[in-house]
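Appendix B. Chain record.
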Amino acid sequence: MTLPPSITPDYQRDWPRYFDAVASLGPRDTLIRAAGLHGQADPANPPMAVDIACGEGRDTRELLARGWRVWAFDATCQAIDRLSASVPRDQHHALSARVLRMEDAAAAEDWPGEVALVNASFALPFCDPAAFPSLWKRIVQCLAPGGRFAGQFFGDRDEWAVVRPASHWRRAEVDKLFKGFHFEHFEEVEKDGGDALGITKHHHLYHIVARRVG
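Structure tokens predicted for this chain:
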């Protein structure tokens, strides 16, 4: 099998290079949608979010600026260092950031209880498929009724599907996964184009904002 040039045999990327490439970009559209649907944060009782594989922090910073509290984690020390250094001092009290792999996150004792949002921007496809069911169960369990998920899943026709097919989903499988949720935004994209590192590939993915109703 010939690997696509922007993914490794263990289905990872050159993360430091990726962080450099996206450092100047704003928050993801799905995060903006979810935060907007939640409405203005109550300063007396700030909403809580979990940011999965937060990277250099583009989404976490947006939530903090909107008055949210955020429990953010990433597998790389460099990501957490970049995030911590980029957050204004007067927002540090609202941030809990730690180095943690997605594969270990489901068992984390300090994972917050009921939260208003779980954000996973382009994150969950990089979780080992064997660990994904436990992580997804934790995500669903921690969401308060009416809480939201925001993020992306990769489709089965994406170019990277040849590397790790179990990390790619058919539309019917995504619908089944989100049983007990209401899709507030669902966009399926299939196109040829550049990725964050400027490498052309065939993309097939789902952009999702979903509210827990069950």
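Further analysis of this model is presented in Appendix C.
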